[in-house]
Amino acid sequence: MAMHAREIEELIRAAFPDARITITDLAGDGNHYAAEVIDASFRGLNRVQQQRAVYAALKGKMDGPEGELHALALTTKAPQ
Predict the structure, then answer these.
(1) By the 8 A CB rule, do 24 and 65 touch?
(2) pLDDT of res. 62
């Protein structure tokens, strides 16, 4: 089951309303995406903590083999 980039952005935006979010469909199949999320709330967090926060915002859409989103290459950081 595929997801649209817009759906991914909406889920992330709900958790990080002021973030700069860029979603890229890597394979054109709706299953392999890259996301860059830049948000001030990431200050003081290491990358693992930042990425866990973003994955939590996806509300289980990547869970297990039946998840709607198969792969997400994630880049997170706080703004400069």
Answers:
(1) no
(2) 83
